[in-house]
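Problem statement: downstream parser choked on a complex file, so we are re-checking the raw output for the flavin mononucleotide run. The parser issue turned out to be on our end (a line-ending mismatch), but while we're here, posting the original submission so the record is complete.
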Amino acid sequence: MVKIGNISIPTFPLLLAPMEDVSDPPFRIICRELGADFVFTEFISAEGLIRNVDKSVQKLDIYPEERPVGIQIFGGEIDSMLECARIVERANPEILDINYGCPVSKVVCKGGGAGILKDIDKMEKMTREIVKSTHLPVTVKTRLGWDSESIRIEEVALRLQDAGIKALTIHARTRYQMYQGESDWTWIQKVKSHPDIEIPIFGNGDVSSGEKAHFNRITYDPDGIMIGRAAIGYPWIFREIKHFFKTGTRLPPPSLKERIEICKRHLLMEVEWKGEKSAIREMRRHYSNYFKSLQDFKPIRMKLVTAENLTDMLGIFEQIEETYYTQNL
Ligand SMILES: Cc1cc2nc3c(=O)[nH]c(=O)nc-3n(C[C@H](O)[C@H](O)[C@H](O)COP(=O)(O)O)c2cc1C
């Protein structure tokens, strides 16, 4: 088992990454069913939560089937983050996670997300105060540094551990890289092998197959792996990686029937949770992966991403079934 404070999760856990408009309760439940050991919410704005903004408050929802779950918060002001942590406590997640990695300008310019990588003293102070203020185990997700000239991730890990965090996830890119270039996991290995590091170190960045997960596991020795983009429209990635760890072989991909069933269920759960309009809009980013490699799929995909109501959506699913089942795929 891996210990995160008083929480135990299976050895070498696979974690679903926090992803805005993706890692919501329906998707988290599906990922848990398909092998994710731990899931994080999308990030929640401290300011939004304090001001009781509906969208932020809704993100606190946790369904029993998805536990254990970590709620992730972001913000640039220590006082707001402390108030936010108190609100998060009431939602009763297993973990409170702080986002020090978001590269987006509107977050960074207010000193939140990866913006705080420019002020490590403040990062340490904010973390220490949040840890002191809550009974929840506090974890952090961050990047290597602001840019390639200023990577101080070993120092950051040590200082955050000293501030009391119970696990650290490192997305092995700098803020400057945004999502470009390749993640550099050698830094994860450096942090992990530091003699004074005792907390679990989870690696994140560009893991999209069992082979890659296995390679990163044996080469860089993280305590677990967090998966983001590879899970979008393909929640089977978790069970595939686990199968590869166990057997060294690739699990056959899910059948078309399973893909349609899960995708439809995902959509219906989203409609129930966030309402028809948002659900239909936000599901759009999943379809290319859910239906990857279906022949001549482009016209149907166009329909999926332009339909505006559930009746039309369900009609398109029927069309997919009719078109592709007859081809015996
Ligand atoms: C659509 C999207 C939304 C994201 N939202 C968040 C977020 O809310 N909080 C966070 O810490 N990281 C967020 N990320 C970053 C991911 O958690 C992850 O660190 C990054 O995608 C790298 O991992 P991957 O290569 O497995 O995707 C987001 C990424 C994507 C693609």
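For whoever reads this later: The chain has two domains: 2-247, 256-325.
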